[in-house]
Design brief:
Blueprint lengths: L1 H18 L7 E2 L5 E8 L2 H7 L4 E7 L2 E6 L8 E6 L5 E15 L3 E3 L8 E3 L3 E19 L5 E23 L13 E15 L3 E12 L13 E9 L3
Antiparallel strand pairs: 1-10, 2-3, 2-6, 3-4, 4-5, 6-9, 7-8, 7-13, 9-10, 10-11, 11-12, 12-13
Length: 238
């Protein structure tokens, strides 16, 4: 399990590095107002103003951020502004639950018995539910005319579970010569876990799951409830 988590993490980091050079990926013109966690900053002044409180309602006003902390039993309402500067940055974190529909372009099945590694490219769809983490890296950027504007980069990561429907080729080779039909496309129900990368334009994930072949050949199928590895893909239409 630790090895699988390591490879999923490395895969997501590599994908983020590949996409980081695209201007349309991971860039926002403004920060949406809402509740964020102050994840980290390299500015001691902001750390001092925030104190021990880590969650704020944050709004962007031109080149500054307004932090609002609702009153609690521990203290009154707090409100302060922070102007972004070149060389200084703040990283905000937004946590939420995520519900998405994905396709599975391919499944890689490990070798089973006499059958080598298989690559299944049949139709597969999945309903995904999980935890989503959106990181917003905000720093100041100085233009050629001397004006300063905030620069916002974002990356979304997630983890969760999925279930869905799909199909697979069934023939005597994958049923131990027990199939009565030379070859047909069988109906499967699949489930598993995935790690998701959100590039704002599209979502991509690495998945591990298992299939349940429906029908009389299910009990003979070599891959019945055996793990496979694959990719989840979906477009962001919001």
């Amino acid at each position: 399990m630790h090895t699988l988590r390591f490879f999923l993490f490395i895969g997501l980091l590599g994908l983020h590095g590949l996409l980081a050079g695209c201007a349309a990926v991971g860039r926002l013109p403004t920060l949406e107002p809402g509740e964020y966690q102050l994840f980290t900053t390299n500015d001691p002044a902001l750390a001092t103003m925030a104190g021990q409180k880590s969650t704020f309602y944050v709004e962007q006003a031109r080149d500054s951020l307004t932090f609002l902390s609702p009153p609690t039993q521990a203290g009154p309402l707090r409100r302060f502004s922070y102007a972004v500067h070149p060389g200084k940055h703040v990283v905000l974190l937004d946590r939420q639950f995520d519900l998405d529909v994905f396709t599975i372009p391919f499944k890689a099945r490990p070798p089973r018995g006499p059958v080598p590694v298989q690559l299944n490219t049949n139709f597969n769809a999945a309903l995904y539910f999980g935890r989503r983490l959106d990181f917003y890296h905000i720093n100041g950027h100085k233009l050629l005319d001397g004006h300063q504007v905030p620069q916002i980069r974002t990356v979304g990561l997630g983890y969760g579970v999925f279930t869905g429907l799909g199909s697979t080729i069934v023939n005597p080779d994958v049923t131990g010569q027990q199939s009565r039909v030379a070859e047909y496309e069988g109906f499967v129900v699949h489930a598993g876990a995935a790690a998701i990368y959100d590039a704002r334009i599209f979502n991509l994930g690495l998945a591990v799951g298992f299939d349940q072949l429906l029908g009389p050949d299910g009990r003979h199928w070599l891959y019945q409830r055996k793990p496979w590895f694959g990719v989840l893909f979906g477009l962001d239409l919001n």
